[in-house]
Design brief:
The chain is mainly alpha-helical. It folds into 2 domains: 35 residues; 151 residues, Orthogonal Bundle (Cytochrome Bc1 Complex, Chain D, domain 2). The chain has 8 helices and no strands. Helix 3 packs across helix 6, helix 3 packs across helix 7 and helix 5 crosses helix 6. It is elongated and about 85 Å long. Bound molecules: heme C (HEC). The site of heme C has 24 residues, from helix 2, helix 3 and helix 5. This is Cytochrome c. Keywords: Heme, Iron, Metal-binding. InterPro entries: Cyt_c-like_dom, Cyt_c-like_dom_sf.
């Protein structure tokens, strides 16, 4: 019969051997080139599920400590957010009735269509993702270059304007800053915003 001491030694050696084998197997897999990293094919569904689930859990755990401005859904904020969206986000996330850019078509995982009517786009959650980005995807961290105010504005836009029509989108993006006067600039020559 084995002594307690030699039993413990056997367990420790076995566990260590398993870890060494796993690490060696992992390295062998990595350097073999067997895993296809190309963005031209879809992610393996298991990998995609693991990565997306990790993202969702991380966002839910971290988002919510930033406080939205009281006038979050003001027309001024939504308008500024629309301009930023068009200039910075539409390339990956798309705009109504417009073909997706070559960048948006080429990234893997693809960016979600944030303006589709079926989205929820809760501002506090979206603010966190826009500010911090999503590692290992094409989603950049805009907190590095944009103020919190600008990020809340674009979060307000994607929340308030889910399912937006092409006309309203164009009006918000290119319209004049004053309310009630937006239709004038819809098909007009250059609006105030275009001149900037
Ligand atoms: C270069 C491409 C790219 C650009 C530019 C980009 N995004 Fe993204 N975005 C992505 C990708 C890809 C994802 C999906 C990440 C994932 O699968 O976890 C994403 C995810 C998001 C999400 C999370 C959606 C969700 O369901 O949780 C939000 C919100 C978002 N982006 C907002 C923006 C905003 C606002 C801008 C512009 C200020 C922007 N993105 C610019 C690629 C981009």
């Amino acid at each position: 019969m084995l002594s307690l001491r030699s039993r413990i030694t056997t367990v420790v050696v076995t566990v260590a051997a398993v870890f060494i084998l796993l690490a060696a197997g992992g390295l062998a897999f990595m350097y073999s080139g067997a895993y296809d990293v190309s963005a031209s094919s879809r992610d393996n569904p298991i990998v995609a599920k693991l990565l997306h689930g990790t993202y969702e859990a991380s966002m839910h755990r971290r988002a919510g400590s930033d406080v939205a401005p009281g006038d979050l859904l003001s027309l001024e904020n939504i308008r500024s957010g629309a301009r930023m969206y068009d200039a910075t986000c539409a390339v990956c996330h798309g705009a109504p009735d417009r073909p997706l850019s070559p960048i948006g078509q080429g990234i893997q995982p693809a960016a979600p269509a944030l303006l589709s009517a079926s989205r929820r786009n809760k501002p506090a959650l979206m603010f966190w993702t826009i500010k911090h980005g999503v590692n290992m995807t094409a989603m950049p961290s805009f907190g590095k270059t944009q103020s919190d105010q600008a990020i809340w504005q674009v979060a307000a836009f994607i929340y308030a304007e889910r399912g937006i029509s092409k006309d309203k989108y164009d009006q918000l993006v290119h319209g004049r800053a004053e309310t009630g006067n937006t239709s004038l600039s819809l098909h007009g020559p250059a609006s105030e915003a275009d001149k900037q």
